[in-house]
Amino acid sequence: MSAVAQGEPRLAHERSERWVPALTTVCALLLVAVAAEIVIDAAAGPSPVVPKSPELVGWLGGVGERLGYRGFLVALLVSSGAYGGLAVLSRRFRVRAISRRWAIALVAVLQLIVFAGPVLLSTDVFSYVAYARMGLEYGLNPYTHGPVAIVHDSIYQYVGHDWDRVATAYGPLYTLLSYPLAPLGVVGALWAMKLEALLASAGTLALTWRCARMRGFDPVAAILVVGANPLYFIYGLGGAHNDLIMMLAMMAAVSLTIAAGAPKPSARREAGAAASVVAGALIKATVAVLLPFMIVSKRRLAPIVGTVAALALGALVGYAVFGIHGINVVAALNRDAAFVSTDSFANEIAHLLGKPGVFPIDHDLLKAALVLIVLHLLWRTWRGYDWVAASGWALLAISVTSTWLLAWYILWPLPLAVVTRDRRLLAATLAIQALFIVHQISPLLAPVQ
Predict the structure, then answer these.
(1) Which residues on adjacent β-strands are paired with residue 50?
(2) Do 235 and 42 meet the contact criterion of CB atoms below 8 Å apart?
(3) From 359's CA, which of 18, 201, 346, 412 has a CA 20 to 30 Å away?
């Protein structure tokens, strides 16, 4: 092959790279513009995507128009396209075109825009405040009473009707963390919850950066794939979900585990990593699935000691404050597992098969499938597969087999997916998210009435 022929692909690649800065700028500006538009329009008042809320952002009132369902879906579609382009460019051309400062600034701006706006898409944060006020202001156990027990409180009118009689399903650590916010009043507590979610998001992204760098991956691409994800900053942070705190504990555990192996194994860090997972599970139980993979991978006593010590401490505190109901995780999980959401894959598959919905036998089959998947992943981990990747697959399997699927659930494996060498996990996670988004925007194809 001639030198000219050999140089042609290289020349074509260099020419294509010239467009990268402009394309990344366009994608970034679209993401920022869409986030700002959603927040400004959401501040105009309640709508199908903006829950009824006390006045939080009065300074934005009168600026935008009320955020309608179709308008939000268009914004979601545009932001998803921009995110897809940005993710491809960041992973294809790495830091040559996307600087670290540029990436950090973009992610920070997106987070701050959403933080400055009203609560989006979910009433969960109002339930968080209700449970806190139940316990601290009224002396009621949030593990035995639903928010309807404080129907006279000003927060009750904002709690979702599906949850007003449901006791909290969150871990005792999160409930205790929420208690100090109750005396701030409804508005003060909501802002504190939003700030808590913002700080947890920042911590998760910082730890994702650290883990990616320690494992030899591009940290710029890692935080862009996570932090610029529309489901992450619009749904997760926009709703101030405690999943972000759980993910912070998860990434702290991964960071400690990676650091524990260099330059030589550290029993203290391994025990701390296991304790961090337990802490995350005491916020939201799902993250506990990381523990068996961590223990099987390390085959050392330290993670077991850390797990047992943290569990014992958490159970002792939870029982002392909330009684047996505060530590009865199995009952809470079984209760939640019976719920069915319209966005779940199980529900959609049932409809495709001509069934009216998910039957009890379907719940059993899905649980059995999940157990088989986890056992297979544990076997692979025992044989040397990356425990971080195995944990990510397990979290993805939980979200896919769950009959109660929400947008922030399919965020769980994303930080893990960008710090493992199994690229299939990231591809699968983004594919599941893409299917969720397609399902969300499907009403755009329906004729306007």
Answers:
(1) 47
(2) no
(3) 412
In this prediction, residue 116 has a pLDDT band, given cuts at 50, 70 and 90, of: very high
HSE of 259, CA atoms in CB hemisphere, 13 A: 14
Instruction: Give dist(CA 45, CA 164) in Å, integer.
Output: 22
Taking a C-beta distance cutoff of 8 angstroms, is the pair 142, 113 a contact? no
Domain boundaries, the chain: 15-445
List of residues 6+ apart from 441 with CB closer than 8 A:
73, 76, 77
> In which band, very low, low, confident or very high, does the pLDDT at 214 lie, cut at 50, 70 and 90?
very high
Whether residue 393 contacts residue 381, with contact meaning beta carbons closer than 8 Å, is answered with: no
Per-residue pLDDT band for 30 (boundaries 50, 70, 90) equals very high
Q: From 221, 201, 200, select the one nearest 212 (Cα to Cα).
A: 221
Q: Which residues pair with 47 in a beta bridge?
A: 50
- Residue 160 has a pLDDT of 87
The span from the CA of 91 to the CA of 431, in Å, is 16
Structure tokens at 237: 């942070």
Q: What band does 442 get if pLDDT is binned at 50, 70 and 90?
A: confident
Whole-model pTM? 0.90
What was the pLDDT predicted at 4?
Answer: 46
